[in-house]
UniProtKB/TrEMBL annotation:
CDD domains with a match to the protein in the record: NTP_transferase (cd04181)
Lineage: Bacteria, Bacillati, Actinomycetota, Actinomycetes, Frankiales
EC number: 2.7.7.13
Domain Mannose-1-phosphate guanyltransferase C-terminal: 244-326
GO molecular function: mannose-1-phosphate guanylyltransferase (GTP) activity
Superkingdom as given in the UniProt entry: Bacteria
Record's protein name: Nucleotidyltransferase
């Protein structure tokens, strides 16, 4: 499981925690991913860490509490997707032809993992890629396949893509293929490893799939993923509460007349005041939304304080920040950790603060 990314598109949230450890629907993204792996019958996972590597082991330990055996391998410098996979090779078990499942650490997916493995085994493939359809593939690299499902090429972003199938960030590798990846330098599987396999006529298969899929790399996608987990559109056995219109974690305090809905999450020790509204937003642990404030489609960091009557719509607020009364911030605004916006300082901002 590749969990070494810094998550720069999610700053300022990732200034204090790596992206795979940010809480989505009450628990870290990685917890949802590990639950998917465990539920598919996988018993042992190696976490390939880098940025803030220590927080993973602090939270997950040896994995026994999550029904898994976990190991950790840390990159001392960024190695890319292929380099990170090669870096954990010494911790992998099994023979040269055994399948190894690789997960990117920032994806929510309803993929049938066992079906992907069966496809890989039946085709005797070197690598099998989970592929997903997107409405507009022009923003992605696309992966055409032939009538038998064999990948024919890997194309970078193009204004006229021949397919709407993209790499969905989950792969099955034949164990021996991992050992062919270059050691000790950055390697991209998309730009180097996979094209080299095709050039050598090595069988690389695609597994197109139309189940739920979401890359959590942007604030809007992060909010959407949390909402989908809370409301049950995306199923996860790691969800720390029942599916419904909102998720309020233990220790949170919500005023009787506050309105919480739209798949919102209220973190542990968070507080929502009288007459406040939290719609589809994610409140991290200890966040405070004061009386009469409205927080919509936003992410509020740990121990941040949203003052009385404040309006936030599509905003990211870093840990410990304070937004005092009279401020209105809308889509695209980002308030960095520890910042204080004094009363009435900003209205309708779409810029970083």
């Amino acid at each position: 499981m590749l969990v070494g990314g810094q998550g720069t598109r999610l700053r300022p949230l990732t200034m204090s925690a790596p992206k795979p450890m940010l809480p989505v629907a009450g628990v870290p993204v990685t917890a949802h991913m590990l639950a998917r792996a465990r539920d598919a019958g996988i018993e042992r996972v190696v976490l390939a860490t880098s940025y803030r590597a220590e927080v993973f082991e602090e939270y997950f330990g040896d994995g026994s509490a999550h029904g898994l055996e976990l190991e950790y391998v840390t990159e001392t410098e960024p190695l890319g997707t292929g380099g990170a996979i090669r870096n954990v090779a010494g911790r992998l078990r099994g023979g040269p032809d055994d399948p190894v499942v690789i997960f990117n650490g920032d994806i929510l997916s309803g993929l049938d993992i066992q079906a992907l493995i069966r496809r890989h085994t039946a085709a005797d493939a070197a690598v099998t890629l989970h592929l997903t359809e997107v409405p507009d593939p022009r923003a992605f690299g696309v992966v055409p396949v032939d009538a038998d499902g064999r990948v024919t090429e890997f194309l970078e972003k193009t204004p006229d893509p021949p397919t709407n199938l993209i790499n969905a960030g989950c792969y099955v590798f034949r164990r021996s293929v991992i050992d062919t990846i270059a050691v000790g330098r950055p390697v991209s599987v998309e730009r180097e490893t996979f094209p080299a396999l095709l050039a050598a006529s090595t069988p690389v298969m695609g597994y197109p799939d139309s189940t739920y899929w979401l890359d959590l790399g942007t604030p809007a996608a992060f909010v959407q993923g949390s909402r989908d987990l809370v409301t049950g559109r995306m199923v996860s056995s790691a969800l720390p509460g029942p599916v419904g219109d909102c998720l309020v974690l233990a220790g949170a305090a919500v005023a009787a007349d506050a309105k919480i809905g739209g798949g919102a999450t209220v973190g542990a020790r968070a507080r929502v005041g009288a007459g406040a509204a939290v719609d589809g937003a994610v409140l991290f642990d200890g966040a405070v939304v004061e009386a009469g404030a409205t927080v919509r489609d936003s992410v509020i960091g740990r121990d941040a304080v949203i003052g009385p009557g404040v309006l936030l719509d599509g905003v990211v607020v870093g840990d410990g920040a304070v937004i005092e009364r009279g401020n209105e911030l809308r889509a695209g605004a980002r308030v960095f950790p520890g910042a204080v916006l004094t009363a009435g300082a900003v209205r309708f901002s779409s810029d970083r603060t």
